[in-house]
Amino acid sequence: MVLLGSFLPWIDTAVGSVSGARGAGLWTFYAAMLGLAAVLIPLRRVAAVHATVFAATAVVVPVWQVLHLLTLVGLNGWVPGPGLVLVLGGGVLGATAAAQLFGPAATTMSTGPSTSSRTRRD
Questions:
Q1: Do 49 and 58 meet the contact criterion of CB atoms below 8 Å apart?
Q2: What stretches pass through the bilayer (predicted)?
């Protein structure tokens, strides 16, 4: 979500739209690459730190962008674009994943004897 939203329009105005790639969207794109690395790392704590940095960037940058626009022009003349919404939503999902990674590891439950313990009967 963040990877795609980084390049979509972040701000829609009557004059046109502003792409995320022209500004802060590049930061979220780089954070999305870090999030992708977190998925591929087999070490749980390192992946959790990567996911936290990804989530913080993907949440803070869009919120900062909206607050910056509110101080410049107020609520008139612009609306958040789909890219801004996708990046913020991806950041929230990334924060949820990071919280789960920092939590206790899931344990698997046995559903019966394993196949390796069975003996062959002739």
A1: no
A2: 20-41, 53-75, 81-102
Please calculate the CA angle 79-83-87 and round it to the nearest 5 degrees.
Answer: 115
Q: Which of 24, 50, 15 is nearest to 5 (CA)?
A: 24
Instruction: Calculate the dihedral angle through the C-alpha atoms of 47, 9, 68, 30, rounding to the nearest 10 degrees.
Output: 30
| Dist. CA 14–CA 89, nearest whole Å | 25
Strand ranges for the chain from DSSP E:
9-13, 17-19, 78-80
Instruction: State the CB neighbour count (10 A cutoff) for residue 92.
Output: 14
Contact 10, 18 (CB under 8 A): yes
CA distance 4 to 75: 26
Cβ partners under 8 Å of residue 76, min gap 6: none
Task: For the chain, give every domain's residue range.
Answer: 2-9+26-102
pTM of the model: 0.79
pLDDT means per 10 residues, the chain with 122 residues, are 91 88 88 87 88 93 92 88 94 92 73 59 56
